[in-house]
Amino acid sequence: MNSLYAMPGNEAFAELLSLHTGYQRRQLLLHHFPDSETLVRMAPPTPGGDAVIVCTLDRPDPKALPLMMAAATARELGAARVGLVAPYLAYMRQDKRFHPGEAISAKIFADWLGHTFDWLVTVDPHLHRYATLAEVYPNAAHVVHVASQLAVWIDAHVTMPLIVGPDQESAQWVTAVSNLLCAPSVVAHKERHGDRDVEILLPEMDKWRDHTPVLVDDIIASGETMVQTLRCLHARTSLPPVCVAVHGVFAEGALEGLLAEGAGLVVTSNSVITDTTQIDISKPVAEAMVSLCEANPTETARRTPA
Question: Which of 102, 161, 195, 273 is deepest in the core (most CB within 10 A)?
């Protein structure tokens, strides 16, 4: 029998995984001392089974050390393997040394996870310069793609959608969603000049003026790319655009900025639970989790770094 643990803030998603799989949830608590050190306390896992820790990794820095301690404790208490379900996987956008001396955080963070966990389940990680997660994460992993869940929500809530990609990196999600809906699509060209300084150019779209623009992307963080896209749409449509993303990370003021620029609705999945969460992705995540738990241990054995 495998055991399921939720890091603080992940209880709702872990409960959905438990309902889908029948895996028993076990208690995991964090105690914070006055000096800001943390003590992990957890119920022992079933001996010989997998201990699965659920922890979405938005705002990852305060989560990382307690997560490492929880994984080590689960292993010490008898888990045969320790897996991580991280619906949102942090640091994947920092995949290049843009300036001398900068860390390539994607590789560093994924390698640390590889030394901490035997396997990983995540959802649509931002792999811009990597073809697969295997290029940075050294162990068994299952990447869950949820374009179909986005498409189901759009189909149920938007009449005559025009799927709009705010930049070239969103094209994979735009293509997948528009194909599932048999809907037209366009992708903008983006030039980024800074963290909150982006320029967006949209292609011609006059023939779809009667469609509702649905901006689709994997992540909303600063929100500036979508904000600039919304500004470009002001003169091109009379219908309030809808913004849909897999991961609603939302820097301070990002959601308010989207609504101020005319977004009629902003919707994200429960990979990160926020006020915009309307799309449940727990079922395919649960299926991926079960496939790794049931895999032969030799298939998920840790790879020795070269």
Answer: 161
Distance in angstroms (rounded) separating the CA atoms of residues 146 and 242: 18
Taking residue 22's Cβ as centre, other Cβ atoms within 10 Å add up to: 12
Within this chain, do residues 108 and 208 fall inside the same structural domain, yes or no? no
Residues 114 and 153 in one domain: no
> What would the pLDDT profile of 80-96 be if each residue is shown by its tens digit?
999 999 999 999 988 88
The amino acid that residue 231 corresponds to is: R
Residue 48 phi, psi (nearest 5): 85, -5
The residue range of the domain holding 14 is 3-145+282-299
* pTM, rounded to two decimals: 0.92
Cα of 142 vs its chain's centroid, Å: 13
Does one domain contain both 228 and 139?
Answer: no
Q: What is the pLDDT of residue 306?
A: 30
Query: pLDDT at position 305, please?
Result: 32
In this structure, are 30 and 139 located in the same domain?
Answer: yes
CATH code of the domain in which 62 resides? 3.40.50.2020
Query: How many independent structural domains does the chain possess?
Result: 2
Q: pLDDT tens digit string along 173-211? A: 999 999 999 999 999 987 766 665 667 788 888 899 999
**Which pLDDT score is estimated for 303?**
41
Phi-psi region of 304 (alpha: psi -120 to 50; beta: other; left: phi over 0): beta
Residues 224 and 118 in one domain: no
For residue 60, how many other CB atoms are within 10 A of its CB? 16
DSSP 129: S
Q: Is residue 304 part of a domain?
A: no
What local confidence, expressed as pLDDT, does residue 299 receive?
57
Token pair 């995949």: residue: 95
Distance CA 35, CA 50 (A): 33
